[in-house]
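Sanity check. The docking grid for magnesium ion depends on where the pocket ends up, so I'm generating a full predicted complex first rather than guessing from homology. Inputs follow.
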Amino acid sequence: MITLEHIAMEYTPGQPILKDVSLTLERGSFHFLTGASGAGKSTLLSLLSLQGRATTGKFHMFGENVTNMTREQLPKLRRRIGIVLQDYRLLDHLTVLENVSLPLKVAGEADAEITPKALELLEWIGLSEHQNAKPPTLSGGQKQRAAIARAVITKPDILLADEPTGNLDTELAQRFMYLFEALNQTGTTVLIASHDENLISLFDYPTLRLKNGALVKKSSTIEDLSSFNEIIS
Ligand SMILES: Nc1ncnc2c1ncn2[C@@H]1O[C@H](COP(=O)(O)OP(=O)(O)OP(=O)(O)O)[C@@H](O)[C@H]1O
Ligand SMILES: [Mg+2]
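Predicted complex below; grid placement will be based on this.
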């Protein structure tokens, strides 16, 4: 469903952040994306969410060749993607309810259909009391929950989430992981960037690790042990 072949990306010419990233995300798959701070996780998610562009390489999504698309062709694909950005990007002049409702409004749904859905989701994530609050008055974790609700309300074909549980306590983080799993079970492809090795280890999903501008397979504990054995033998 999504394939990247030998992708490179840079912010400053000649200084690639991603050097050679190849990746296939099958439809309905669930992956974690990990790697050190600064490794390029958010950069890769900006590419996959059609915000950043690659300097070289091939990128296919939903059967389309994204590499050759014009700017005007991208919004149609973007509407099929749910994204939780690391800095949330909620609209400060809208209420929580309006922020969460926005993607369905943009998709042309009637208010009468949108509001009950948005309210139900706010209830589930524990933000009902804050439905009329504006984002600047919310805590970090509350903003994060609103951003997640906005990303999942459309039941997107793919959910890209950048450290979506970084501001949540363990119990809430797990609750949201179950939300992502439930969405995945309805067919959504899920990719979650996270530093949180503890959280990742609680779930049995493949992990993609960014290192030196490329994806490496996560070494298992057994491999770690065998290389340790080699060192000490
Ligand atoms: N808009 C930008 N302009 C220039 N350089 C950038 C920009 N965004 C990111 N970078 C650089 O690209 C590199 C990768 O950043 P990125 O945000 O993708 O890392 P990350 O893996 O998401 O890190 P973290 O775990 O801290 O969120 C960093 O060296 C960063 O300084
Ligand atoms: Mg990041």
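Relevant for the grid: The CA atoms of residues 149 and 188 lie 15 Å apart.
Also worth noting: Confidence is low (pLDDT under 50) at residues 220-224.
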